[in-house]
Amino acid sequence: MLGDYPAASRSVLDAALSLCGVLVLLCCSSLAAREISVNDFESLAEATKRVEAGDVIMLEPGLYLARDKVRTRNPGNAGAPIVVRARKPGTAVIQVNTPEAFFVSAPHWHFEGLVIDGRCADHSACEHAFHIVGRADRVQVRQNYLANFNAHI
Length: 153
Known about the structure:
Elements (H helix, E strand, L loop, with lengths): L6 H25 L3 E4 L2 H10 L5 E4 L2 E5 L3 E3 L9 E5 L5 E5 L3 E5 L4 E4 L1 E5 L9 E5 L7 E3 L2 E3 L6
Parallel strand pairs: 1-2, 2-5, 3-6, 4-7, 5-8, 6-9, 7-10, 8-11, 9-12
């Protein structure tokens, strides 16, 4: 079929078909996105282990007593970041008595509307609300309230 068109038209047609393929992939990836509702620290930590690109971990209002750092293992991507968000900004309070609240080592994670409070018995033991390392590119930390850490990020 492409042989019937001049070379310039074929390249335009090829570009259009490639664009259609990208759009189909973007649509399909956003359709697969899930909202994972959590209401305690254990379910938050578990949700971070099983999320996929495009998923949203939604923290319901309440107090989350952190027993360990939360690790980000799975990557998001540019079109489908993994989002950790308070359902109502400022109402999901994560109290931490460990050196780090979130250990972010995967790309394209977004954190929104959280309150993270370091509550270590020895203040110097609360190092970071977010420790962002390695391949954790394109991480966004926005509209959060971070308190009582030596270096919040």
